[in-house]
Write a structure and sequence with these properties.
Elements lengths: L1 E8 L5 H15 L3 E9 L4 E5 L2 E5 L7 H15 L1
Parallel strand pairs: 1-2
Antiparallel strand pairs: 1-3, 3-4
Helix pairs in contact: 1-2
InterPro entries: Selenoprotein_Rdx-typ (IPR011893), Thioredoxin-like_sf (IPR036249)
Keywords: Redox-active center
Protein name: Selenoprotein
Length: 80
């Protein structure tokens, strides 16, 4: 099964954004994943990883919860 990490910048106040992404992933995939972990960071980081592989990085992608969930989906399907 899949482990998701949402690393977010604490000083930037990105906790709400990280929680929104985590909630959307849990609603979409529920018991198909092992874990969604919030990982604290700094320096403006906002990165989502599926089993260690980056599926979203705010330095490269525009923030869109639905797009992040879609990027996670192949990792969940592959693990099933």
């Amino acid at each position: 099964m899949t482990r998701i990490e949402v690393e977010y910048c604490v000083p930037c106040g990105m906790l709400n954004r990280a929680q929104d992404v985590s909630e959307a992933i849990l609603k979409q995939f529920g018991e198909e994943i092992d874990e969604v972990a919030l990982v604290t960071g700094d320096d403006g980081v906002f990165v989502v990883r599926a089993d260690g592989e980056v599926v979203f990085d705010k330095t490269e992608d525009e923030y869109d919860v639905d797009a992040i969930v879609r990027a996670v989906k192949p990792h969940v399907s592959a693990a099933a």
